[in-house]
Design goal:
Layout lengths: L20 H9 L5 H5 L5 E4 L1 E2 L11 E12 L7 E6 L5 E6 L3 H8 L6 E10 L2 E5 L3 E3 L4 H4 L2 E4 L8 H13 L10 H7 L4 H10 L3 H28 L23 H14 L6 E6 L5 H14 L3 E5 L3 H15 L6 E4 L5 H13 L4 E4 L13 E6 L7 H8 L7 E6 L5 H8 L3 E5 L10 E6 L3 H13 L3 E5 L9 H19 L3 E4 L5 H13 L4 E4 L12 E6 L7 H8 L10 E6 L5 H12 L3 H12 L7 H4 L9 H21 L6 H12 L4 H8 L1
Helix pairs in contact: 7-8, 8-22, 8-24, 9-10
The structure holds adenosine-5'-diphosphate and magnesium ion (MG).
Magnesium ion binds next to helix 10.
């Protein structure tokens, strides 16, 4: 049970003054559901502003405060922004610019002819100065405007900076002092403030010590949880699985294994023979052939009379794996079943029966396969595909389901640097597929302007005429906020392509009814549909060797790792493949460099490294897609710098203080609950 002292922090945000159903929504969208989340919603940066008396004093790009009088509202035309012309004291005119729903409030806040104090960043657009989405619009030059240094928070639509700052202030006022979990010597050496002070300071201004302390807390919590899970895993022995090769010998693969595949299978076989549960990561670039390695592992389990489960991140992938495995494993006679959240009624019942009586050897599915209602006769191996899509907690919980700890094989196409694997799993063995199957041709990657749409469509037409298939990917502009717009863009593109290609085009995106999505996907896999228009749902794992052209719209909006994943959908057969990156006309320098790099290399590790450098690693950690952040507080730089120490400390604390009992041990429990790594504590109790 959560220590009482944390209760105020776990109160819902609507217990804050001024938060009703209307404000709760945008807060939820930011993941701020409890006070704890609000106090940990640390500023992205701080702005320092200069008060100026007229626009002549403003430098382009500068943060300023000045008095302006609105003179005219220019309503938005179509999808354009709402613009308000405003005058300073000397008669200079600038524009205040609002996109989307912000334009409604702009109309109210900026009546024509009435002076307002505006704070924001001055930009130049054409030959006019403008301020896009001012941070403040006030009737009086209020105290907050005079503040030199002001936090800037991540927002969602419906929130403003002052609103969030006010909520943070309230939440901090209700934040209790907590017992110290950091070792006193370290605290002193680093000059770190105590927990509560660190939070307050981190909201006030740049304060490296405060931020480091908060990051360290998170890393320590993570380290403690991982070690508790690991210790628990070791305590509960697994099942030693010794295959005799009888099923693997019957496999009739159309290719010979690569050296890397054979080596990885050997490593896994060695692990499975042990009683202590395997925890191994199989890393291999897209197309490296991870599936057949997974199948071999599962056949070893079947040879030893045990069951395996393979977890896929999406319904589409689960189905595809099911088909692929069934095809590959047909000569072995093993019984493979599929279970997803969508399976209901009699089919589901019979699968559940088969799992219970042991007649099903291998189960493939989405997270539904680990629901409580799913009971296995003797589950001994869990394979997790594209692991970076799953939250850390989920992975760990799942590995600890059942009396015997199952062996775990996690597979990923994302090259993860060692520190980050350590952060996500603790110590873990790694097998690498560092060799692509032979005969793969380089994918011819080109960059073209969206302006040449007609030519591009004709190029696609010629491609389809040869009997080969193609993907057309529309971008996901932002995570959830604008998802509907993205879907609309994909729908619109689908409509125009359909005019040209008729029934040969199919569409998949996340908001189609599941049956429709499946049916469309299957039509493409079968080859009935020639051109698949999709959002990034096809990013992972889909395997259609006859698809040899990939068109990616607005490629500059994607991360490198993501582009690499997408591109990996082609180049899977013997035919030469082409990847066409469509770009907008106004590209930043970095965007240009990134697209050039895509053209230059097909090395996933190199691209991931560059991505890490350019984007700070969020994508690499998989936080962007999974929505389950391994780390919210610690930055990549802090992880690299502080994680080894935090993990050492966690180990010491657990070893010296066995069950987390002493004074610091009790404090560490509070920490685990604070960061919701309390499954660690629960295991402790169980053991
Ligand atoms: P990924 O590592 O991306 O999951 P897959 O397992 O989907 O890759 O394999 C990609 C393609 O390569 C599949 O069509 C698979 O049949 C094929 N493949 C796998 N191993 C080999 C091999 N040793 N030789 C030739 N083709 C192979
Ligand atoms: Mg795969």
């Amino acid at each position: 049970m959560r220590p009482d002292i944390l209760n105020p922090l776990f109160a819902e945000t609507d217990t804050l003054d001024g938060v009703g159903p209307k404000l709760k929504k945008p807060l939820d969208r930011l993941g701020l559901t409890r006070l704890r989340d609000v106090v940990y919603h640390l500023p992205e940066r701080f702005v320092t502003r200069r008060a100026i008396s007229n626009l002549d004093e403003a430098e382009v790009g500068e943060q300023v405060v000045l008095a302006l009088t609105p003179t005219q509202h220019l309503g938005s035309t179509g999808r354009g922004p709402h613009r308000v012309l405003a005058e300073d004291a000397t008669g200079n005119v600038c524009a205040l610019v609002f996109f989307g729903r912000a334009s409604y409030s702009a109309k109210k806040q900026l009546p024509v002819g009435e002076l307002r104090w505006i704070a924001g960043r001055v930009d130049r657009y054409g030959d006019m100065l403008q301020i896009v989405h001012p941070d403040h619009i006030l009737e009086r030059s209020d105290a907050s405007l005079g503040r030199l240094c002001e936090p800037v928070y991540a927002l969602s639509e419906g929130l403003t900076q002052p609103r969030v700052a006010g909520l943070v202030e309230q939440a901090l006022a209700r934040t209790p002092q907590l017992p110290e979990w950091i070792e006193p010597g370290l605290l002193e050496k680093e000059g770190w403030p105590d927990w509560r002070d660190a939070l307050v300071l981190a909201h006030k201004g740049e304060n490296e010590r405060a931020r480091d302390r908060l990051a360290y807390d998170e890393l320590l919590a993570n380290g403690l949880a991982l070690m508790l899970v690991r210790a628990d895993n070791r305590r509960r022995n697994g099942l030693s699985l010794q295959g005799d090769g009888r099923l693997r010998d019957k496999l009739d693969l159309p290719f010979a294994l690569t050296g890397a595949q054979a080596r990885s299978i050997g490593e896994i076989e060695g692990d499975l023979a042990q009683e202590s549960p395997m925890l191994r990561l199989l890393q291999g670039d897209v197309g490296a052939g991870k599936t057949v390695v997974a199948l071999s592992a599962m056949l070893i389990a079947a040879e030893a009379g045990a069951q395996s489960a393979m977890l896929a991140p999406t319904e589409i992938l689960a189905r595809q794996h099911y088909e692929t495995l069934r095809r590959m494993a047909a000569p072995t006679g093993v019984n493979i079943a599929l279970l997803t959240g969508r399976d209901k009624g009699r089919a589901r019942e019979s699968t559940l029966m088969g799992l219970m009586d042991g007649s099903i050897d291998i189960l493939v599915g989405t997270h539904a396969i680990f629901q409580d209602s799913v009971a296995y006769k003797n589950l001994a191996l869990v394979v997790i595909d594209e692991q970076h899509r799953f939250g850390v907690a989920q992975r760990l919980m799942l590995a600890s389901k059942g009396k015997r700890a199952p062996h775990t094989l996690a597979m990923t196409a994302t090259p993860i640097p060692r520190t980050l694997t350590l952060a996500q799993y603790g110590e873990l063995d790694v097998s690498k597929l560092d060799e692509l199957p032979p005969g793969r041709q380089a994918i011819d990657t080109r960059v073209a302007s969206t302006g040449r749409m007609e030519e591009i469509v004709e190029g696609v037409a010629r491609h389809l005429q040869t009997g080969q298939q193609a993907y057309w990917v529309c971008p996901m502009v932002r995570e959830s906020d604008y998802a509907t717009e993205d879907i609309a863009a994909a729908e619109a593109r689908f409509a125009t392509l359909k005019e040209r290609f008729g029934e040969a085009v199919a569409l998949v995106h996340g908001q189609l009814a599941p049956e429709v999505k499946d049916a469309n996907m299957q039509a493409f896999v079968r080859g009935d549909a020639k051109l698949l228009v999709a959002t990034t749902v096809i990013e992972v794992g889909v395997d259609v060797p006859n698809a040899t052209l990939m068109v990616i719209e607005q490629a500059e909006r994607f991360g490198l790792a993501q582009l690499h994943q997408l591109r990996g959908r082609v180049g899977r057969g013997a035919e030469k493949s082409v990847c066409l990156l469509l770009r907008g006309d106004e590209l930043s320098e970095t965007a240009r460099d990134r697209l050039a790099l895509m053209r230059e290399t097909q090395d996933g590790f190199r691209l991931a490294e560059e991505d890490l450098r350019l984007r700070g690693g969020g994508e690499l950690l998989g936080t962007r897609q999974s929505g389950d952040n391994a780390f919210n507080v610690a930055s990549l730089e802090q992880i690299t710098r502080l994680l080894p120490k935090a993990h050492d400390d966690a180990r010491l604390l657990i070893e010296r203080d066995g069950g987390l009992t002493g004074e610091r041990g009790e404090a560490a429990r509070v920490l685990l609950y604070l960061f919701e790594r309390d499954y660690g504590v629960q295991l402790l109790r169980g053991g």
